[in-house]
Structures are given as structure tokens and as C-alpha cells.
Amino acid sequence: MLFPDEPNAGGWAVDGICDHFLRWAEERGSSDVVFNPTDPVAIRTHGQWWFVTRRPPSITEIAAMLDNLARDPAASSRVRGGAPLDFSHEVDRSPGDRRGGRIRFRGNATACAAGWAHGVSVTLRLIHGIPPALSDLDLEPALVDALFPPNGLVSVSGVMGSGKSTLIVAGIRHIRETQRRRVITYEEPIEFDLTRIDNPMGPLEQSAVPSHLPDFSSAVANASRRAADVILLGETRDAPTMRALVSYAETGATVYHTIHTSTVAQILSRALGFFVAEERPAIGSSLLSSLRLLVQQRLYRRADSEGRIAVREFLALDQSMRERLLATPQEHITQEIDRMVKRHGQPLIEAAGCLHADGILSDRDFQDIEREFRKEPLP
Predict the structure, then answer these.
(1) Which side of the chain, N or C, has fewer Cβ within a 10 Å radius?
(2) What is the pLDDT of residue 379?
(3) pLDDT at 205 over 60
(4) Over residues 278-285, mean pLDDT
């Protein structure tokens, strides 16, 4: 797969050629584009990276292109001087594209080595339009039933690029279409335009961090002054944000957030790990009282067709489960949640087994998951 209109040397700096390329990449389902001076231009499609030009763009081409994309003639000079730059860029769709509108990208430019010289690497990530409907995600019925608690905390975990945000915003879309609740989102960046949903039943605002608010902990404090019924927080990374999330969930709102872990059982220990030892007992009790749903998601290449498939582990917690966890010493909570997932939820290995039996998940991916989840316990 090669870009058919690759410019000659110096051509990437010509106004318009980059936008033409970005339209071409988006039409092929790409999520990310990378320009750097040591490799041909690359795109990521369905989780796989592909070189799509025959030659690397030069240092001067990338610098001129960045100055144009960032609308700042000094942008590339500052980046090469050691100041990374975040920016946004929009491209008009092709005249014949029925979808119309514009394609939005989040950009990052960072200095990099280019032989003995200082070059610039530019990464552009596609910011999607309207989020998918829940019916597009093949969610398990039990997960759909648990995804919309009237209050409390919904934690969705996974590595970067595992579809955590897509799962949550599909749920937010469903809330906006079916419930008379006020929704406020705080994201870095805003990845889907939830304001474009037809026939909404409640108000919604989207705010970006740090463009509109300085950080996520400030965002949750802000929501308490805006009468939000539902909050989406892009990612939990530190103790102030976690503390604010739990505090707001305790007021009766429904709070959705993402966190990086590899299993459902690790979510609580990861959240508590943000705090010093003296704080953990108190915040742990508040957190356990607020938890309603724990989800862990991974994406794999489909074995039966193009695209990717989500494999999910989840546990919906009822009052008796929360009480049991509250009575469990914190050093044993991870093991207790793991047992609960096996008894009352959906373990990842079980979901993977079903997809493998249906020919959707490859032998190799299933065997990798099996090796991970069939390990003998440590002595």
C-alpha cells in the first residue's frame, strides 16, 4: 500500500500536499500518521504500521510542513530547540465524500536525531466524528446491562490504543439519546464530537485538558459546580484526580474514567497505588463504596477478516460484593477481585475462548492469552 501521489524531493513542504495525503490516509481507516526524517511516511491502520512512501521526507520538508500545520512560522525552530509542540489540524473532506464536514487531527511535534543533525518527528492522530453506537461494538448483554448505573464509578482499563475511550463514548452516546441527564466530558484531547448526536435528550458539554481546564483534578472539581449527572474523565493518572473522582461519585453522579492496567483485578491496586500508604485505608473504603463496574479491554486482529476484535473482561459489583471487599485486607483485594471475576463476571480467558471457537480470534493470540492466564500461582 503506497500513497499514489507521493511528491518529489521538497514536495511535502508544498501547501496542500499534506492535506491531500491525510485525506487519503483517513479514507483507508488510518488512526495515526508519522512523518520523520529517517523513515518513509508511515500510517497505522487496524493497529498495524505501514510505510506508504518510497522515501523519507527531509528535515527541511518536515520543518516547513510543521510551520504550515501549526500556523506558526517559528514552530519548527522551537521544536528543534527542545520544546515539544502539541497542535490541532483540520482537513476538508474530498468533494465527493458523502460524509461531508472536516477531518480533525491532534498533532505532536518532537525533536529527534536525524544522523548528526536535529530533526523533527510529527505525529498526527485522527480525532473521530460521531462515536459508534453500542450496537456497533458487539458488547456482551451483561456488560450493556451494567454499563449505566444511576450513580457511582465505572472504571475501564487497558493499554493505550485498546479502545477504552471508544467504549465509554459509545455509552455516553446511548445516555444522550435515551436519558434526560446532563453530561460533561473532560478529555485530552476531545476524540469524538458528542454534540453532533441527533435528537439528544439532555444537555452536554465537552472540555479539553489543558486547553479549557489546566488538569483533570481541576476538571472534576469544576463538574461539581455545573450540576453534572454524568461525567466522563479521559484518564486517571494521579492521586488528586482519583480523589476528586471518588468524591464526585459519592455525591450521586455517574462517573466514567479510564486507567491503565492489564486485568480487572489490578484496577483497584493501581488506583490505590497513586496514594501514600497512610491515605490508602480511607480512600480505599470510599473507592470500594463507589465502584459499580470494572472493565478491561484488549484489541486483537481479527482472524476471519480485516479489522480488530475487542476481548473484554468485566465485573459488575453489587452491594454484597462491595461489602465483602470492604472487609478484605487491602493486601488481598486483588486476589479477591480475581476470584469474583471468575465466579460472577467474565474472565478474559473465557471471552477469548468463545471468540477463538468462533474463528474470530487467531490461534496465536488465543495461545498468548492462555499462557498469561494459565500460569501457575507463585509460591
Answers:
(1) C
(2) 39
(3) yes
(4) 92
Give the Cα separation of 373 and 367 in Å (integer): 10
Measured CA to CA in angstroms, residue 377 lies from 29, 372, 373, 374 at distances of: 41, 11, 10, 9
Range of the domain at 285: 134-373
Rounded mean pLDDT of 182-210?
87
**What CATH number has the domain bearing residue 235?**
3.40.50.300
In a domain, 3, yes or no: no
Cis-peptide into 150, omega within 30 deg: no
- Predicted local confidence at residue 232, as pLDDT: 93
pLDDT of residue 341: 96
Instruction: Point out the domain boundary residue: 98, 127, 156.
Output: 127
Mean pLDDT of 237-264: 91
Same domain for 165 and 312, yes or no, is yes
The verdict on residue 1 lying in a domain is no
- Above 60 in pLDDT, residue 376? no
pLDDT of residue 220: 75
Nearest of 128, 162, 135, 132 to residue 295 by alpha carbon: 162
What pTM did the predictor assign? 0.81
